[in-house]
Amino acid sequence: MSGPGAPCSAASSAAEIAAAVAALGDPARADGQRRFFKTGPGQYGEGDEFVGVRVPTLRALARSLRGLPPDVVDTLLDSPVHEVRQLALFVATANFAKADAEARADWVQRYRAAVARGRVNNWDLVDLSADPILGGWLLERGDHRELLTWAGSADLWERRVGLLGTFAFLKAGQPRAILDVAPLVIDDRRDLIQKAFGWMLRELGKRVDRQLLLDYLDAHAHAMGRTALSYATEHLSADQRTLYRALCAPK
After folding, report:
1. Is residue 108 part of a domain?
2. 3-state SS of the chain?
3. Looking at residue 143, which CATH number applies to its domain?
């Protein structure tokens, strides 16, 4: 196995980059990834393909691809191979962060299109991109309303994008985005929505205001799923966690 190294550059074609990712793969690791990311029939990652490349290796390769043209990134996002799509999102996130206003607008539109066509389609792909790209773009504009559209979707990944996009606002000390998204997701008992919802509520308490979290839980713990509540209360005291669990609705 060669290192992430670097026959690839920003001048490489999508086919060359995909071949480099495949060459870095490990079949035994790929087997474990397929199980971990639930790729079996009826599971959330059904049919996704893995070649077995570690995330640090993909990040290193992505650093050599900064400046990759957006059209090449789009092509990579349409790959059936999970790690190729993941690499494309690492590159897109880095390029978005360094771009001027016009290019950032183009990157965020391409990201929206990729989500809509089902290419940001596992929790790790959503989590590495929704906050810095979509969330960051909306934060700059002081308007989180687009996140409500994504969070209101019945599609698992679109809904998680809406949730994770609120993280950019929470990091900036702004609670309104997650509090407005919350009513759209509180009744969703899918595990990956429960975890994301609870995680964002926990960040509300950690990064913005502990009392805002407690006020939300006082009003809504009875309607939350147990997984979301567990994540949301992770940093509270044992007595507080016990109190809110007692209020929580059964699954």
Report:
1. yes
2. CCCCCCCCCCCCCHHHHHHHHHHCCCHHHHHHHHHHCCCCCCCCCCCCECCCCCHHHHHHHHHCCCCCCHHHHHHHHCCCEHHHHHHHHHHHHHHHHHCCHHHHHHHHHHHHHHHHCCCCCCHHHHHHHHHHHHHHHHHHHCCCHHHHHHHCCCCHHHHHHHHHHHHHHHHCCCCHHHHHHHHHHCCCCCHHHHHHHHHHHHHHHHHHCHHHHHHHHHHHHHHCCHHHHHHHCCCCCHHHHHHHHHHCCCC
3. 1.25.10.90
Residue numbers in the chain where pLDDT is lower than 70: 1-7, 10, 249-251
Same domain, 97 and 130: no
Residues 50 and 26 in one domain: yes
208 and 156 belong to one structural domain: yes
Which pLDDT score, from 0 to 100, does residue 29 have? 95
> What pTM value is reported for the model?
0.92
